[in-house]
């Protein structure tokens, strides 16, 4: 039987017509993750640790998720801003931090209900600080709607991002048509639970480079971007992103922060997602299912 920390078994009553049976079913785990930052000045004096966000996520790749979230929200600028990432040290025996770049996939005992593994602290390099005004935005994320409760509409503005280079790179329509099948084939946790979103990175030839799953599509993308950040592989200017489900503003914001020029999704984009794509020269593709897809913005990048 599976013992992965991101899966949980449950006995359910399955009704099929007039027949009812008791069978084991597997669920995707959803638990809160609190992301904190620790700052140290150039003299070595540590400032009070600050809580930045709480997100409902599927456990695993928590360090990547934290780094990706801070980067895509504009709180981190570069990989060098991060000294190390640790789980909460409030317990008597905190876990040993994983080396940055290797990620948190190897995490095994998650400890159901244990706060230790549900709090991650990102320690910044001495002298690096986070804008206090931005920290005061009321971040609270959920698996369904992304970042909610922001202090004002000004928080929706994407700061410091220039439009991507228009019309490049090019990608073949045949490559795009193959993304959906590849994504579905590689969604291992979705196949087991039916309850997870995915974010996948492809090269321009349609080769799958990495895939990350989570109960929240925005978390899956933060895990993907965080992994690339910690491995010094940003920006992603010559790659394609595909996400399951719909394309929201937050998916487009995060893609833009990572420099991704082409975004494809199984579902439809929102109106605000289209506006972001138009403003920043991102090719936006929706309803990618089998051989068909819609190009909402940036069709010049798609070639026959």
Secondary structure topology:
Layout lengths: L6 E10 L2 E10 L2 E8 L11 E8 L4 H11 L9 E6 L31 E6 L7 H4 L4 E3 L3 E3 L22 E2 H14 L1 H6 L3 E6 L5 E7 L2 H14 L9 E4 L5 H9 L4 E4 L5 H10 L2 E7 L2 E6 L4 E2 L1
Parallel strand pairs: 3-6, 9-16, 12-13, 13-14
Antiparallel strand pairs: 1-2, 3-4, 5-6, 7-8, 10-11, 10-12, 14-15
Helix pairs in contact: 1-5, 5-6, 6-7
What do these coordinates show?
By secondary structure, this protein is of the alpha/beta class. It folds into 2 domains: 126 residues, no CATH class; 133 residues, Cytidine Deaminase, domain 2 (3-Layer(aba) Sandwich), CATH 3.40.140.10. 22% of the residues lie in helices and 30% in strands. The chain has 7 helices and 16 strands. The strands form 5 sheets. The protein has a 6-stranded mixed beta sheet, with helices on both faces. Helix 5 packs parallel to helix 6. The longest helix has 14 residues. It is flat. About 13% of the residues have low confidence.
Short précis:
The protein has helices at 62-72, 132-135, 173-186, 188-193, 217-230, 249-257, 271-280, and strands at 7-16, 19-28, 31-38, 50-57, 82-87, 119-124, 140-142, 146-148, 171-172, 197-202, 208-214, 240-243, 262-265, 283-289, 292-297, 302-303.
């Amino acid at each position: 039987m599976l013992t992965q920390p991101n899966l949980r078994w449950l006995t359910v009553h399955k009704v099929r017509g007039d027949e009812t049976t008791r069978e084991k079913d597997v669920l995707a785990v959803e638990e809160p993750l609190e992301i904190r930052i620790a700052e140290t000045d150039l003299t070595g004096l540590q400032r009070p640790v600050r809580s930045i966000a709480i997100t409902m996520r599927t456990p695993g790749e928590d360090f990547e998720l934290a780094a990706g979230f801070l980067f895509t929200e504009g709180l981190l600028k570069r990989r060098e801003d991060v000294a190390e990432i640790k789980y909460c040290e409030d317990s008597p025996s905190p876990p040993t931090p994983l080396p940055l770049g290797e990620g948190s996939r190897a995490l095994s005992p998650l400890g159901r209900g244990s706060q230790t593994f549900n709090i991650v602290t990102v320690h910044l390099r001495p002298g690096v600080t986070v804008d206090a005004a931005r920290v005061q935005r009321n971040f609270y994320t959920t698996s369904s709607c992304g970042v909610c409760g922001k202090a004002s509409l000004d928080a929706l503005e994407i700061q410091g991002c220039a439009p991507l280079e228009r019309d490049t790179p090019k990608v073949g329509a045949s490559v795009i048509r193959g993304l959906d099948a590849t994504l579905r084939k590689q969604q291992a946790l979705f196949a087991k639970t039916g309850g997870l979103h995915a974010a996948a990175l492809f090269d321009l030839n349609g080769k799958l480079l990495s895939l990350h799953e989570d109960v929240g599509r925005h978390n899956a993308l933060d895990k993907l971007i965080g992994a690339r950040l910690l491995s010094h592989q940003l920006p992603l200017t010559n790659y394609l992103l595909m996400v399951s489900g719909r394309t929201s503003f937050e998916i487009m914001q995060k893609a833009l922060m990572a420099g991704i020029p082409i975004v494809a999704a199984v579902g439809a984009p929102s109106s605000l997602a289209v506006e972001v794509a138009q403003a920043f020269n991102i090719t936006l593709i929706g309803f990618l299912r089998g051989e068909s897809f819609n190009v909402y913005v940036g069709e010049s990048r798609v070639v026959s």
